[in-house]
Amino acid sequence: MLSVFCSPSRYTQGQDATARLGEEMATLGLEGPALVVAGRSPARMLSQVWKASFGDAGFTHEVHPFGGECTLAEIARIKDRATACKAGVIVGSGGGKVLDAARAAAADLRLPVVCCPTVASSDAPCSALSVIYSEAGVVELFRIYRRNPDLVLVDTRVIAQGPPRLLVAGMGDALATWFEAKTCADGRVRNMRGGLSTQTALTLAEACYRTLLEDGADALEAVKAKVVTPALERLVEANTLLSGIGFESSGLAAAHAIHNGLTTARGTRDFLHGEKVAFGLLCQLVMEGQARSVVERVLGFATAVGLPVTLAEIGLAGVTQAELGLIAQRATAREETIHNEPFEVTAVMVSDAIRAADAIGRAWKSRL
Ligand SMILES: [Zn+2]
């Protein structure tokens, strides 16, 4: 089998990077008009900067307000608007769901796509896949595209203004990257692009984990103070670029599959992707029988930055065995990445691992 590595064509990050958006797009040879799919607060915060930046670079642009959920209906609305304004490029500005929807619409219309994450809450921005949700907020399907984004542009001043909880959720998503990547590489299973992992992807995934441990807590303090520091710059890069490449070019395993299972339980609806992934990672480590020292390092980091390590912390206090069974069933569905683990995984193993992870997390917290 061949090894395959993929990444966005260009990644630009820094304070006030939005002011350079038009210039960066022009450098890549992208042509307007640009349809900007934007969440409400990015539209409020950035519309003047877009006007200046696109204007200077010779792009006309329109803004499409995002409907709130990345559903098939929302993707269709974006496509209609893009067709109506004869868009030459689609720019997503917002959280993971905005970018997923922008990417899906661009892929259907065969247009280039630019992702401008305004929070570092997940590793989706750099990827060539979207998670499509049902109107009720349950993961419905994954769509994989032929190409990664043409440009990912991250304005760290914007990220620093965001809620600290979103940055922490991004750390939860990134926390799983190295462990899932290593499981996939060790098992020589196919990555998201149908090839084997590369040393490059694995090295980036490990750098992702190291950066979290070194810079995570300081970066969180920076966002609480709404300022940009070198630690925040490094952490944002870890959450977005290192984790994005790490997962896509190495692969996912149990942590993300258990996340997908958890989304079926109503109690977890108010919790973010990365928060559920962090708990899913703890379950993965338990299921893989990882050394106590490995589990403790993850627990120590998670509790230091406020990531959930118990069922109660993801809205599942008092979960019944029947509910757990449904979660485990979803997590072990045939197409799930949990089957990248190097042993056969059953639903019972998953529900047992969830109970065990919860007990370990509770014991850890009671000692703090
Ligand atoms: Zn993820």
Q: Which helices and strands occur, and which strands form pairs?
A:
Layout: E1 11-14, H1 21-27, E2 34-38, H2 40-57, E3 61-65, H3 72-84, E4 89-94, H4 96-109, E5 113-117, E6 129-133, E7 139-144, E8 151-155, H5 156-160, H6 164-186, H7 199-224, H8 230-250, H9 254-262, H10 273-287, H11 292-305, H12 321-331, H13 347-366
Parallel strand pairs: 1-8, 2-3, 2-4, 4-5, 5-8
Antiparallel strand pairs: 6-7
Structure notes:
The protein is of the alpha/beta class and 368 residues long. It has 2 domains: 11-160, Rossmann fold, CATH 3.40.50; 253-368, Dehydroquinate synthase-like - alpha domain (Dehydroquinate synthase-like, alpha domain, Up-down Bundle). The protein is 53% helix and 11% strand. The chain has 13 helices and 8 strands. Residues 122-123, 173, 256, 273, 277 line the site of zinc ion.
